[in-house]
Write a structure and sequence with these properties.
By secondary structure, this protein is an alpha+beta fold. The protein is built from 3 helices and 9 strands. The chain has helices spanning 14-26, 74-98, 137-147, and strands at 2-8, 34-46, 49-60, 63-71, 107-116, 123-131, 151-155, 162-167, 173-177. It has a 4-stranded mixed sheet, sandwiched between helices. Helix 1 (14-26) packs parallel to helix 2.
Amino acid sequence: MKLFIRGRQITLTDSIKKYAEEKVLKVEKFNDSIIKMDVTLSAAKLKTGNAHVAEILVYLSGSTLKSRATEQDLYVAIDRAIDGIEPQLKKHKEKHSRAKTQDDSAKKLYSLTNDENFESDEKKLVKVYLPIKPMDVSEAILQLENLNKVFFAFTNVETGKMAVVYKRKDGDYGFIEE
């Protein structure tokens, strides 16, 4: 498993990195199929004052899980984000241990998204893993909601073609297929 810890608008000290690494490595026992974990720690200004945000993205064989916590104390934010990702990992492992249909270790690198860099105005290119495991539309909508994205590309289990689900402005979902 690869682990990336980075800070946005915050200087990461060795003690913060060590604390985050220790906490994140403990959740590895909940799921064996973790490929990569991204931990982003940042500072934010809210109406109630300054706060710290801990965001954890877990890339698994066939899906991605996300947990985000905002707290006054950075260490508490890390703990809350970990507490949010643990049940997701347990649920994912349970779900996939019941229905193991194909080898989930292969993946394709498909889509590209832009992610704003808070320290400068330039855009950066972020690689997003598109699972090779086909899924149905309802599972793709769950992934869309889990990742809190506007759209999600996937391989449709019924047709075997690439498809996209997206969230419409009226709150409904749209579906595009090749």
